[in-house]
Amino acid sequence: MVQQVTKGIKISITSNFEGNRFQNSKVYYAFSYSITIENQSSDTVQLLSRRWNIFDSLNNLEVVEGEGVVGKKPILKPKQSYTYSSHCFLLSPIGSMNGHYTMINFSTSEKFRVYIPTFQLMIPATFN
Predict the structure, then answer these.
(1) Which numeric CATH code is attached to 2-120?
(2) Average confidence (pLDDT) over 9-37
(3) Distance in angstroms (rounded) separating the CA atoms of residues 112 and 121
(4) Of the residues 50, 78, 103, 105, which has the fewest C-beta atoms closer than 10 A?
Protein backbone atom coordinates (compact mmCIF):
# COMPACT_ATOMS: atom_id res chain seq x y z
CA MET A 1 0.00 0.00 0.00
CA VAL A 2 1.18 3.51 -0.87
CA GLN A 3 0.07 6.47 1.26
CA GLN A 4 0.51 10.24 1.35
CA VAL A 5 -1.06 13.12 3.30
CA THR A 6 -1.60 16.60 1.81
CA LYS A 7 -3.30 19.33 3.88
CA GLY A 8 -4.86 16.75 6.17
CA ILE A 9 -6.20 14.55 3.36
CA LYS A 10 -4.72 11.04 3.40
CA ILE A 11 -4.59 9.05 0.17
CA SER A 12 -4.07 5.25 0.42
CA ILE A 13 -3.69 3.11 -2.72
CA THR A 14 -3.50 -0.58 -3.54
CA SER A 15 -3.19 -2.00 -7.07
CA ASN A 16 -3.59 -5.41 -8.71
CA PHE A 17 -2.85 -7.05 -12.03
CA GLU A 18 -6.12 -8.30 -13.57
CA GLY A 19 -4.82 -10.12 -16.66
CA ASN A 20 -4.36 -9.48 -20.35
CA ARG A 21 -6.89 -8.02 -22.75
CA PHE A 22 -6.75 -8.21 -26.55
CA GLN A 23 -8.10 -5.30 -28.55
CA ASN A 24 -7.35 -4.03 -32.06
CA SER A 25 -4.60 -6.65 -32.53
CA LYS A 26 -2.77 -5.45 -29.40
CA VAL A 27 -2.17 -7.03 -26.01
CA TYR A 28 -3.04 -4.80 -23.06
CA TYR A 29 -2.14 -5.39 -19.44
CA ALA A 30 -5.13 -4.65 -17.20
CA PHE A 31 -4.64 -3.25 -13.71
CA SER A 32 -7.15 -2.30 -11.04
CA TYR A 33 -6.55 0.07 -8.17
CA SER A 34 -8.43 0.99 -5.04
CA ILE A 35 -8.09 4.40 -3.43
CA THR A 36 -9.21 5.56 0.00
CA ILE A 37 -9.45 9.30 0.60
CA GLU A 38 -9.54 10.06 4.32
CA ASN A 39 -10.25 13.51 5.73
CA GLN A 40 -7.92 13.91 8.72
CA SER A 41 -8.45 17.69 8.80
CA SER A 42 -10.94 19.60 10.95
CA ASP A 43 -12.82 21.01 7.92
CA THR A 44 -15.38 19.55 5.51
CA VAL A 45 -13.97 19.15 1.99
CA GLN A 46 -15.23 18.06 -1.41
CA LEU A 47 -13.37 16.39 -4.25
CA LEU A 48 -14.02 18.38 -7.44
CA SER A 49 -11.73 16.88 -10.10
CA ARG A 50 -8.76 14.62 -10.76
CA ARG A 51 -5.69 14.46 -12.95
CA TRP A 52 -3.86 11.20 -13.63
CA ASN A 53 -0.46 10.68 -15.22
CA ILE A 54 -0.28 7.06 -16.40
CA PHE A 55 3.15 5.80 -17.47
CA ASP A 56 4.28 2.49 -18.95
CA SER A 57 7.75 1.05 -19.49
CA LEU A 58 7.58 1.83 -23.24
CA ASN A 59 7.73 5.56 -22.41
CA ASN A 60 4.05 6.09 -23.14
CA LEU A 61 2.28 8.75 -21.07
CA GLU A 62 -1.49 9.08 -20.86
CA VAL A 63 -3.01 12.05 -19.05
CA VAL A 64 -6.57 11.71 -17.79
CA GLU A 65 -8.42 14.73 -16.39
CA GLY A 66 -12.02 15.25 -15.44
CA GLU A 67 -14.63 16.00 -12.85
CA GLY A 68 -14.94 13.84 -9.77
CA VAL A 69 -13.99 10.18 -9.52
CA VAL A 70 -16.07 7.32 -10.94
CA GLY A 71 -18.89 9.79 -11.56
CA LYS A 72 -18.98 11.17 -8.02
CA LYS A 73 -17.78 14.29 -6.18
CA PRO A 74 -17.66 13.04 -2.61
CA ILE A 75 -18.03 15.40 0.34
CA LEU A 76 -15.96 14.37 3.35
CA LYS A 77 -16.60 15.67 6.84
CA PRO A 78 -13.75 15.43 9.36
CA LYS A 79 -12.79 11.80 10.06
CA GLN A 80 -14.83 10.51 7.08
CA SER A 81 -13.34 8.49 4.23
CA TYR A 82 -14.37 7.54 0.72
CA THR A 83 -13.10 4.47 -1.15
CA TYR A 84 -13.45 3.76 -4.84
CA SER A 85 -11.97 1.38 -7.38
CA SER A 86 -11.05 1.87 -11.02
CA HIS A 87 -8.73 0.42 -13.65
CA CYS A 88 -6.32 1.19 -16.46
CA PHE A 89 -4.76 -0.62 -19.41
CA LEU A 90 -1.07 -0.50 -20.31
CA LEU A 91 0.83 -1.66 -23.39
CA SER A 92 3.63 -3.01 -21.18
CA PRO A 93 3.66 -5.22 -18.05
CA ILE A 94 5.21 -2.48 -15.91
CA GLY A 95 4.02 1.05 -15.29
CA SER A 96 3.03 3.60 -12.70
CA MET A 97 0.46 6.26 -11.95
CA ASN A 98 0.38 9.52 -10.02
CA GLY A 99 -1.54 12.75 -10.07
CA HIS A 100 -3.69 14.99 -7.93
CA TYR A 101 -7.23 15.76 -6.85
CA THR A 102 -8.55 19.30 -6.78
CA MET A 103 -10.62 19.79 -3.66
CA ILE A 104 -12.45 22.63 -1.96
CA ASN A 105 -12.47 23.43 1.75
CA PHE A 106 -16.03 24.41 2.73
CA SER A 107 -14.84 26.51 5.72
CA THR A 108 -12.51 28.75 3.72
CA SER A 109 -13.81 28.28 0.13
CA GLU A 110 -10.16 27.58 -0.79
CA LYS A 111 -9.48 25.20 -3.65
CA PHE A 112 -6.38 23.07 -3.12
CA ARG A 113 -4.53 20.10 -4.57
CA VAL A 114 -4.18 16.76 -2.86
CA TYR A 115 -1.30 14.84 -4.35
CA ILE A 116 -1.71 11.20 -5.33
CA PRO A 117 1.61 9.47 -4.72
CA THR A 118 3.25 7.41 -7.43
CA PHE A 119 2.21 3.78 -7.26
CA GLN A 120 3.49 0.86 -9.31
CA LEU A 121 1.59 -1.29 -11.78
CA MET A 122 3.40 -4.60 -12.33
CA ILE A 123 2.47 -8.12 -13.28
CA PRO A 124 3.42 -10.52 -10.47
CA ALA A 125 6.22 -12.20 -12.49
CA THR A 126 8.20 -8.91 -12.47
CA PHE A 127 8.56 -9.05 -8.67
CA ASN A 128 11.22 -11.78 -8.93
Answers:
(1) 2.60.40.1470
(2) 95
(3) 27
(4) 78
